[in-house]
Amino acid sequence: MKDIFNQLHTEETLNRIDKLSPNSKPQWGEMDVAQMLAHCSSFQDIAMGNAFPERGWLGILIGKFVKPIFYNDKPFPQSMSTIPTILIVDEKEFEIEKEKLKQKIITFQNNGAQKCTTHPHPFFGKLTSDQWGKGIYKHLDHHLKQFGV
C-alpha cells in the first residue's frame, strides 16, 4: 500500500495534481476540480491536527469496525459519503486551491509520522500514523482518479 509519508509517493501525488487544469471534469461526483482540491486540503487539516470535526453517531457506532477501508488496498467506492464539514459546495479558485493543497501535502510529508494528529478521525476513530499515511494517500488517489489523473 502506498503511503504519503514515502517521498516517492508524495512526489507522484504532487505530479498528478500538476496535471489537473481548471477544465478538468469529474468522472463521478458533484464537486468541480477546485472544490475537490479544497476538500482534499480540508482533509489534510484534519490529519495535521488543524481541524477537529466532531464524531457523528454512526462513526462512533461502527467506525472502528470498518476503519480498514480507510487504509487497505481496496479503492474507495466512487461516490462514498464524506465528512459533512469538508463537503465543499461554494465556488473556489483553482490555482489558489491547487497550491494550498500541494503545500499542505509537502508539510505533512516533511513533518513525518511523528507529527501526525492523535485526534480521532471523525468517522473511523483512533488511527495510527501509519494508518493516516496510507489513508491520506488513498484519499488523494481516489480524488485524483475522479478527475482522470
Q: Can you characterise this structure?
A:
This is DUF1569 domain-containing protein. It comes from Gracilibacillus salitolerans. It holds the Pfam family DUF1569. Helices cover 52% and strands 0% of the residues. The protein has one domain. It contains six helices and no strands. Helix 1 packs antiparallel against helix 5 (94-111), helix 1 packs parallel to helix 6 and helix 2 packs parallel to helix 5. It has helices at residues 7-18, 33-47, 57-66, 68-71, 94-111, 129-146. The mean pLDDT is 95.
Question: SSE layout and pairings?
Answer:
Layout: H1 7-18, H2 33-47, H3 57-66, H4 68-71, H5 94-111, H6 129-146
Protein name: DUF1569 domain-containing protein
Give the distance, in angstroms, between the N- and C-terminal Cα atoms.
Answer: 19 Å
Assembly level: single chain
The succession of helices and strands, N to C, reads HHHHHH
Q: Gyration radius, to the nearest Å?
A: 14 Å
* Relative helix content: 40-55%
Segments where pLDDT lies below 50 for 5+ residues?
none
* Structural classification: mainly alpha
What general form does the structure show? Answer: globular
Largest pleated sheet: none
Q: Count of DSSP E strands?
A: 0
Provide a count of the helices: 6
Taken as a percent bin, the fraction of beta residues is under 5%
Q: How many independent structural domains?
A: 1
Average pLDDT, rounded to a whole number, is: 95
